[in-house]
Amino acid sequence: MTQEANFIHFVYTVLATIGVIGILIFIHEFGHFIVAKWMGVRVEIFSLGFGPKIFGIKGGETEYRLSLVPLGGYVKLYGENPEEAPNLPDKDRTFYYKKVWQKALIVLAGPLMNFVFPVLVFWILFSTTGVYVIPPKVGKVLPNTPAQKAGLKPGDEILAINGKRVHSFESLVLYLREHTELKEVTLKIKRDGKIFTVVIHPAYREGYNIFRKKTKIPYIGITAKPTFIHKKYGVVKAFVLAVKKVWDITYLTLVAVVKLVLGELPFSTLGGPITIGKMIGQNVQYGLLPLLSFTAFLSINLGIINLLPIPMLDGGHLVIYLVEAIRGRPISLKTLELILKIGIVILIALMIAVFYNDIIKLLSGWKHP
Asked: Which of 150, 148, 156 lies closest to 221 in space, CA to CA?
């Protein structure tokens, strides 16, 4: 690419990144905003971004702001500060005096919107443009491989792997990357109208599993047919598939979080704003639809992150409300201050870690799978 082309791509990447992050922040904060209104809590500020205000518009009782640091946002609720709440005149509109379940719903609404949004995105994509998939048919059988020894032939259609239905060649590859300790693979094959099973003992080679961890993955030695099938779904079927898509991404992300905590995944796999911007830039090159899909994926990740039981995050607040509900009384201000300080330390440490990962990847030329 020429310097001019590189500059144009950089500008598009920056604009797209700001747009995507802005959409995700708006969706999340809108969840808090709309449920707070529903519960009768006054919303004083709705801000996209943190830090100093760039500009603001007053609408009713709420000031809508655009702030300087575009890495988040916030909704300031009337009486959310326990120290100030007792001195406020309008107790009915005060967050602090709402019931525990009402406060929990307001907090939960933000992450919940991060799951509702991708369902809507995938629903629209599946029911309008549809999806293009590579059919699970064998294109080539590579010589001296487990597939050749098992008798697979070009044109064979793979219906299932180890009892799990296969919808595309990609799902077959993902299954092998997900199950890295397979000793044998049972394929349900359709050939010339006949259905039978084939047992393959896979070889292993260096590769990356579904969590981008370098490891040995099963290898059977087949390639896909270079064809695509366009699948378009009705409204109901598209909605069901959209929910399933969001569930699958959520499940895999939660598994990755657990593996990170247990040390089974290296912390270097995490990325921060620079990594996200890089990936958004890659999707921009492929067009609007891939960018929308990636935005939906990011939204799910944002929802999960915010539900982690870390003080300062929504999940941390939900844990506090759960404790208060069990105890039957609020946690003391001194204890709350200590919890929030711990949360700030944890979040700062995480931010430093992901920025460090970003910088290392940037210096290494982004040579990652």
From this structure: 148
- CA-to-CA distance for 264 and 112, rounded, in angstroms? 28
Distances (CA, A) of 222 to 103, 154, 277, 351: 54, 9, 34, 42
4 is catalytic: no
State the greatest distance between any 2 C-alpha atoms of the chain, in Å, as a whole number. Answer: 81
Amino acid at 170: E
Domains and CATH numbers, the chain: 112-130+234-369 (no CATH), 132-230 (2.30.42.10)
- Summarised one tens digit per residue, pLDDT across range 8-65 is 767 777 888 888 888 999 999 999 999 999 999 999 999 998 888 898 999 889 999 9
Interatomic CA distance for residues 257 and 282, integer angstroms: 24
- Segment (H or E) for 355: helix 333-363
Total residue count of the chain as it appears in this document? 369
- d(CA 361, CA 349) in angstroms, rounded, equals 19
Q: Which has the closest alpha carbon to 136: 116, 113, 164?
A: 164
CA atoms within 13 A on the CB side of 210: 20
Count of CB atoms within 10 A of residue 218's CB? Answer: 22
Distances (CA, A) of 61 to 41, 88, 155, 206: 11, 16, 66, 59
> For the chain, percent helix, then strand, then coil, each to nearest 5?
55, 20, 25
- Say how far apart CA 197 and CA 161 lie, in whole Å: 10
Helix (H, G, I), strand (E, B) or coil at 365: coil
If residue 195 lies in a helix (H) or strand (E), which one and from where to where?
Answer: strand 194-200
Which residues fall within 8 angstroms of residue 227, CB to CB, at 6 or more apart?
Answer: 134, 135, 137
Structure tokens at 186: 């049972």
Region 126-136: what's the mean pLDDT?
A: 86
Catalytic residue among 4, 29, 170, 181: 29
Q: Residue type for 298, please?
A: L
Question: At 216, which amino acid appears?
Answer: K
pTM metric for this prediction = 0.81
